[in-house]
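Lab notes, practical 5.
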Amino acid sequence: MASMFARIGIKNGDIANEVIVETYPVGEVLHPRKGVAMPGAPLDAPPMKAGNSEDPRVVFSQWLTAKENPFFSRAIVNRVWRNFMGRGLIEAEDDLRVTNPASNPALLDALAEDFIKDGYDMKKLMRKIVLSAAYQRSSLPNAMNENDDRFYSRFLPRRLKAEILLDACSEVTGVPTPFNQILSRAGDAKTAYAGYPKGLRALQLPDASVASRFLDAFGRPERAQACSCERQQDSTVGQALHVFNGNTLNEKLRSKEFLGLQWISENLSSEKIIERVFLRALSRKPNADELLRFLKIMAEADPKDPKSKQESIEDLVWAVLTSKEFVFNH
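Output from the prediction step:
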């Protein structure tokens, strides 16, 4: 396989984690003993030969996505399934081998075949998964499935990924996150950077060079390797401290763009404000108990003091954004 990439060279860029990839006109891998050029050959597959003027990567990509090649479709289907379900049909998702079978081989084969027939259409694949009964099952366990973590008899709750959680906080508050600092190559210094437009989502960041304590605290991967094991999904004390005392949420709640200020200017009732917060954050209205509790909190604000009402709305939004229901996909 190495010979398919023998004409590729890399060098460091000017900013942290920037890698410049170059293509050379010639390049080959020699046999360590015989000294002869070795053609590219995947395991259990015939050699792939590229002409002198042809980029070997093109030949490799054609083999990789060929309908006759079962490896690509199975690998992609398994990774997309894991992204939505929290666990791959084959786990770990990058450990596809004969001695590590799928928990549901027939399902994996069917999805892989459909993926090929659909022309590798990712949207169709994702639509099938999210419309499935397995994805839509409740996360609440019962006596029959409380110990099941493999066969999808219930949905497996998990914390939102760092980028998704940050984007969700921006969406609820109406305040976009500024990505205006880049880490040094050593990671010990920050420099101003104006390359990302206002409103860019964390999910759209191309790499991990953007400075963000929130993303780092919640397990953003360094992208030093292809393995998803880089991403940390465990809950930590650092996350709690950043939510309580960090700048991310506090700056959003105190921003002039905070939606709470708009609600005050519209002279909305406390009940209507609580309802809007719940709909934006949790996609549901508050139940009677939640509504009563938050109404009591907001009633403590001085109705003649806009600042006091603003602070009560900040407390409301902060409480919802730090709740398990918001932070976890369930």
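Observations recorded by the TA: The CA atoms of residues 73 and 189 lie 42 Å apart. DSSP finds 14 helices and six strands in the chain.
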